[in-house]
């Protein structure tokens, strides 16, 4: 960056700070500087939210119960460098150093050797300092909602051409929420005859494999579900089309924000009622490769579709607490189901725990590959013993 700041506008009843029980949501656009539609519609969205507050009961409830962060441009230098509007590729895709910011994050599957750019570092710090629950990053060049994982290996099923996260059902729901509330994305007609996307959604890896992407980083290291929204076939369309893009996306942008209230949330406290940070809270049967932990206020947020789940809260060194919850559809109430956990024997603050930035899924793959030969050896030994008995 040429000394430029990346600007974020925060909207909500308490915009200056996090409030317990109120989830954090973000939209980021224009990380590819020549993909401009997202940048413009986020400015429209800001205007719409601010002017509707106090007038529109739905928007008022949404802002009273959600803290919404909007970054219209993550790559101001790339945007400035795009002098001539073009529907296809231009140099403005990259930042000032010629780096693609959506290939620049630590990757959960392979070592990403790209040197971390100032814009990327700023966004990583932002993710670390806020309890983001849900997010979307806005792109151009196609018309589709793409979801995690963008990269993959045999552990996530990439051999079948699909890289599946433990929360695949939630991601499909999130992508469909956007595509079906968009004017035409759900129709699945691609930008040319070669490419179609049934229901207007795609698994990122199924579309094309990508290393160092922002959405996978959010999910693995930020505990934040993010999808990538491709909003226009033309990356930099004429200005007179912008109003139509806003109309096409307006309902989808709002409905997507509401999904931050899916699932279950709560606080983990000790015997004195004080919050326990860094306690692990996960739904049974969907462990994250980097376990999801409580924030400084002992809070957790888990996005889950309606259904019955067992929630497991663990403070290292103590017996886990298990609670069965029946999750209704909570998005209309603007609040996830509340389920707190209290550890009566604990009166300690757990130490800060950070997840290593190594390719965690590669280690999983190596571990599962290492187990297989051992099993074969065991079988072989058993057969040999049987023969020579």
TrEMBL record:
List of catalytic residues: 230
Statement: the UniProt record of this protein carries the keyword Protease: yes
GO terms of biological process kind: peptide metabolic process; protein processing
Single GO molecular function: zinc ion binding
GO cellular component, as recorded: extracellular space
One Pfam family this sequence matches: Peptidase_M14
Alphabetically ordered keywords of this record: Carboxypeptidase, Glycoprotein, Hydrolase, Protease
SUPFAM superfamilies per record: Carboxypeptidase regulatory domain-like, Zn-dependent exopeptidases
Keyword Hydrolase on entry: yes
InterPro entries: CarboxyPept-like_regulatory (IPR008969), CARBOXYPEPT_ZN_1 (IPR057246), Peptidase_M14 (IPR000834), Peptidase_M14_domain (IPR050753)
Segments forming domain Peptidase M14: 1-260
Membrane-spanning intervals of the chain: none
Homology family: Belongs to the peptidase M14 family.
Protein name from the UniProt record: CBPM Carboxypeptidase
Lineage of producing organism: Eukaryota, Metazoa, Chordata, Craniata, Vertebrata
